[in-house]
Amino acid sequence: MNDFLEPGMIVRHPAAPDWGDGQVQSRIGNRITVNFTQAGKQVIDGTKVALELVALDKG
Question: What is the pLDDT of residues 6-56, one digit of tens each?
């Protein structure tokens, strides 16, 4: 479900929008470590949460 995620990608937690955007720090198996702007570093269980990729405007 989160197999496409790589370090450096910006994501959101769909059940915790107040955490803000987060940068993926690592993905080891189903454990995804994300540093969120409002919640700090969180370890997400990738089998239970589908993180949403944030599309960045490059223009």
Answer: 999 999 999 999 999 999 999 999 999 999 999 999 999 999 999 999 986
The residue behind tokens 């990738």 is 46
Strand order in the sheet with 40-45: 40-45, 31-36, 22-28, 10-12, 52-53
- For residues 46 and 59, give the distance between their C-alpha atoms in angstroms, rounded to a whole number: 31
All residues at 6 or more sequence positions from 50 whose CB lies less than 8 Å from its CB, including other chains: 1, 2, 14
Which residues, in sequence order, are CB contacts of 13 under 8 Å at separation 6+? 19, 22, 34, 36, 42, 44, 49, 51, 52
